[in-house]
Amino acid sequence: MKKNSIQERIRQSSLLRKEPSWLIDLRLQVLTKLLKADALHKEDLDLFKAKSNVLLKEIDPLPRFMQVGAQNVYEQLPRELIDQGVILTNFQEAVKKHELLVKEYWQAKSELFAWDLKLAELIAFMDSGAFLYVPKNVEITLPVEYFWIKPDKSGAPVYSTVLLLVEEGAKVDYVERIQSVEDSGDQPFSLHLLTEVIAKKGAKVNFWANETFNQQVKAHIWRVGKLYRDSQVNWQINVLSNGDTDLKLEVDLVGEGACTNVKIAGISSGKQKLKIQTQVRNHAKYSKGKIVQHGVVMDESKLSFEGIGEIQKGAKGAVSQQESQMLMLSDQALVQVNPILLIDEDEVSAGHAASIGRVDEEAMYYLMSRGIDKKEAIYLLICGFLDLGRQSFSSEWTEAVKRKLNV
């Protein structure tokens, strides 16, 4: 397909969706950069087609949004939250009906293609996703759930975005499940997903993500946070899929006293490749960032952790800490741990620790002496090693670990 043809196709499709002019301009601006960099593949040029979404809207006790492939299929929100001004809807509708809430953060995306061409693809071809808005001082006591499910028949790549906008003093628990059904085909499938959390002054967000898709899914996942004064976002991300994954988490602490705690647990197996990069940037005084990453490496797989803590000039009293631990279960596996600290201010606290080890033989002997077989003993030790917050998923988490370990 000719370059001017794909540009016109995107423009016409965006007009049919009745997208605002600033979003169309942003798509075309990023696409121009991609074409100049020759960064598109044939499958990318055929993906931007009109999709028929079967969106069922219900008022239900559980706030929930479900997406199958690029189709938004289900959304529900309790009447109580609707009356308080909470919004949970698909991203295309949010761009049109709540443009002023979305525009500020998506106009800024034009800066991102300079350093990440894969993210630029998502900005240009974004075709689905969700939007959650929590008004000032509203506390949502039920977890808000977002499901992405691999379709039965694989097709064109999926480019989705989820925007969480949490206003001053608001509180919310958010759960993101990225998964495959048992029989979801054996054709390769490409997922690009960007989730952005904006926490205004004094807001608090507990963010959980569980990734359990099958080996046919190759995923590029970005999670981005921007935290204002005295806000807090706690991240618990479990990478338990069987497909290759490139995960980036970037958090900017732009307000004084902002705080983020990042916990990532991952298992790689077979010939899988997992690349996980976490970066926390302290822009403001007395901001606090902590990164904890635990990984288990099996078979001939590859797993890399990169943790970056950055304290910028002017962020006096800031805290940046990180810890990365790897557990190796195979001599054929490949691991990489790369902790980085970038400090440009005095009177701060910063540190990092990294380790690579094997299963504790004494602990194994103790468990097996109590009648537990070797496979079950390894499972129990790994659960303890990775237990950075699994109670949020209870049996769902343990079942995912069992499948990865073939217990």
Structural class by SSE content: alpha/beta
- Provide a count of the helices: 10
Helicity level: 10-25%
Shape: globular
Tell me the strand percentage band.
Answer: 35-45%
Major sheet: arrangement of strands: 1-3-2-6-8-10-12-14-16-18-20
Poorly predicted spans: 42-47
Order of helices and strands: HHHEEEHEHHHEEEEEEEEEEEEEEEEHHH
Q: Output mean pLDDT.
A: 87
Largest sheet: 11 strands, mixed
Protein described:
The chain has 2 domains: 53-359, no CATH class; 360-407, no CATH class. Residues 42-47 have low confidence and may be disordered. 24% of the residues lie in helices and 42% in strands. It is built from 10 helices and 20 strands.
Care to give the gist of this entry?
With 407 residues, the protein is of the alpha/beta class. 24% of the residues lie in helices and 42% in strands.
List keywords for this structure.
single chain; 407 residues; alpha/beta; 2 domains; eleven-stranded mixed sheet; nine-stranded mixed sheet; 10 helices; 20 strands; 42% strand; globular
Layout: helices, strands, pairs:
Blueprint: H1 3-16, H2 21-36, H3 42-45, E1 56-58, E2 64-68, E3 71-76, H4 79-83, E4 87-90, H5 91-97, H6 99-107, H7 117-125, E5 128-134, E6 144-150, E7 158-166, E8 171-180, E9 189-199, E10 204-212, E11 217-227, E12 232-239, E13 245-253, E14 259-268, E15 273-282, E16 288-297, E17 302-311, E18 319-328, E19 334-343, E20 349-358, H8 361-369, H9 374-386, H10 395-405
Parallel strand pairs: 1-3, 2-6, 5-7, 6-8, 7-9, 8-10, 9-11, 10-12, 11-13, 12-14, 13-15, 14-16, 15-17, 16-18, 17-19, 18-20
Antiparallel strand pairs: 2-3, 4-5
Helix pairs in contact: 1-2, 2-7, 5-6, 8-9
